[in-house]
Amino acid sequence: MQIIFTGYYNGFGVEVRSVDEMNLLYNMGCFGKGTSSRSKPRESQNVPAVMRKRQFLKRMCWCKKYGDSKKSLESDTFLKDVNKLAAKILSDGEKQLKKDVIDLVSSEESGEEDDNCDMFSLENYNKEDLVVIIPNSDSEDDDYFANLKPKCCVNKIKIQEKLMLSKQESFFLLYGLGCLQILNNYDNVLNIEQCWKLFQEDDKYFLEKYVVYHYFRSKGYVVKPGIKFGGNFLLYKEGPSVNHADFIVLIKYAGEEYDWISIFGHLRVASTTVKEILIVEVIQPNKEELQLPKDLKEYSVREVLLSRNNPVAINDEIE
């Protein structure tokens, strides 16, 4: 029996929406990341969510802008309108920009604070439709818990947890393991050649990144994005839920010269986070006419391990 997962390409990566498929994909190899969690996608619990007042007001603002959350989830209205909204922001100037961009930092909202929570009977709603609103706390000196007065409200915008796969993870599951089918915005299944062309158009370094990703996955590592440590990938021996990453991977692209100041900075970050730096280079094959992705096996990878050795001065007394 072969399990085929279903993913939807949204322009940034591939999202898996089925709860069972999300859990199985993550548990079988730590693939992807939950959209509203740090790593592993969280299972929905039959209890009301708890959120700050400012976050609830922002969601009410989203509800007025984009309408019912169920419709927006089915058609992915928000993602489809990103380019249109970005173009409008650039053309409308500073005044219009302040209107259309939702402030995610400010705790103040004008006029809508007391109109969003109406009195209702809890029996009329499911627990998943309710949310507990707690006051904002911007000061460390406030006696927060002494004056805590939570309110129970209806959550009109429910953000569905999804598993986001990077382009490299998606193509590895499609091409390397053959257990993923990728659909576009029109629900048409994309074959391997179409996905390869699409991913290369979106990322000019996709070939090098995928070769490196496939290389380390084949060696048994769990490969995750390394952007928070300034690298291309992080390598785990067992997975993020078991231990920390062992290596930060930096890809040296063709024609790129070494920036030693940047490398010293990476070494400093790696030493303070108990990791090592791997500089990898993708070796082009000697074959003249390549048919990609069929001839990906012709590529090879050279890796160099860097370490920052601190000399220890031993002062022996000379008699």
Automatic annotation (TrEMBL):
* InterPro entries, alphabetized: tRNA_endonuc-like_dom_sf (IPR011856), tRNA_intron_Endo_cat-like_sf (IPR036167), tRNA_intron_Endonuc_cat-like (IPR006677), tRNA_splic (IPR006676), tRNA_splic_SEN2 (IPR016589)
* Stored Gene3D superfamilies: 3.40.1350.10
Q: Name one GO cellular component term.
A: tRNA-intron endonuclease complex
Residues in tRNA intron endonuclease catalytic domain copies? 206-282
Question: Which keywords belong to this entry?
Answer: Lyase, tRNA processing
Taxonomically, which superkingdom?
Answer: Eukaryota
Q: GO biological process annotations for this chain's record?
A: tRNA-type intron splice site recognition and cleavage
Does tRNA processing appear among the keywords? yes
Entry similarity comment: Belongs to the tRNA-intron endonuclease family.
- Function (record text): Constitutes one of the two catalytic subunit of the tRNA-splicing endonuclease complex, a complex responsible for identification and cleavage of the splice sites in pre-tRNA. It cleaves pre-tRNA at the 5'- and 3'-splice sites to release the intron. The products are an intron and two tRNA half-molecules bearing 2',3'-cyclic phosphate and 5'-OH termini. There are no conserved sequences at the splice sites, but the intron is invariably located at the same site in the gene, placing the splice sites an invariant distance from the constant structural features of the tRNA body.
Q: What is this protein called?
A: tRNA-splicing endonuclease subunit Sen2
Q: What is the lineage of its organism?
A: Eukaryota, Metazoa, Ecdysozoa, Arthropoda, Hexapoda
